[in-house]
Each structure stands twice: as C-alpha cells, then as structure tokens.
C-alpha cells in the first residue's frame, strides 16, 4: 500500500483529476465535511477562506465561465510529510470571454482518512484577476 505520504500524494493526484473533470458533486465528495479552501490575495469572490458549501458555489461560478466546464490542473512536483502534501501545479482553461487561464500554483493539501480536509492555494493573483475579473 505504500507509506502514508505516498497514499496522500495519490489522493491529491486523484483529486486533481476529479477537479479537472468539473463534476462539482464529485469534487466535493472527495473532501471531508469540514473541509476548507483558502486562496491567496484579495480577488473579489475568489480569495479568502471558504467552507465546503462556499467552495462548491465558487466552483459552479467558475465552471459557467469556461468552455469545458472545468479548469484542468496538472501536478508538476510533490513534497509530502505526514498529512500534508505540497504540489507545484499548472492550470489551463479557455473562457467564454475568449481569455485563456493558465496559472501556476503552490498548493498545500491536508489529507485526512483519504479525503481532502484543507487546501491553501498560492497563485498569480494578477493573472487570475486579469482573466476572471477585469472588464
């Protein structure tokens, strides 16, 4: 079965695959009931801490703005220790407004009992704002 760290890296990899598919219920099903998602910066409607329900609402809004209904996440490099998994990640999505969302992230996931219990998302906030928020 491998070490706890290997299992947790696999859980995060599977979560990113699920996330990339855009099925909000399936994404939320991969998270603990008390899960939180925090996004760096001060982007209106995106930054700050959201509970599971709030994160689901945000996902729905993002999906509506993309041509495929999802943002594809590609993990590039992992570092794991105990329940924490840090992942350098790249995203890609084409938006209905004609813009392309292609960001780089550093995520810190906490995995509990095979589910995601918290996420900290560090990203290029200027790029996110330019693609999703700017007129």
UniProtKB/TrEMBL annotation:
SnoaL-like domain boundaries = 12-118
Pfam families recorded for this chain?
SnoaL_2
- Protein name according to UniProt: SnoaL-like domain-containing protein
């Amino acid at each position: 079965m491998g070490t706890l760290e290997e299992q947790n890296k696999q859980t995060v990899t599977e979560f990113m695959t699920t996330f990339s598919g855009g099925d909000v219920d399936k994404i939320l099903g991969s998270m603990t009931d008390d899960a939180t998602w925090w996004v760096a910066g001060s982007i209106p409607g995106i930054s700050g801490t959201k509970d599971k329900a709030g994160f689901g609402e945000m996902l729905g809004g993002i999906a509506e703005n993309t041509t495929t209904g999802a943002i594809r996440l590609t993990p590039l490099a992992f570092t794991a220790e105990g329940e924490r998994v840090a992942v350098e990640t790249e995203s890609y999505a084409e938006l209905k407004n004609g813009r392309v969302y292609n960001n780089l992230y550093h995520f810190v996931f906490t995995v509990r009992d095979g589910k995601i219990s918290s996420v900290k998302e560090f990203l290029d906030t200027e790029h996110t704002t330019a693609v999703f928020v700017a007129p």
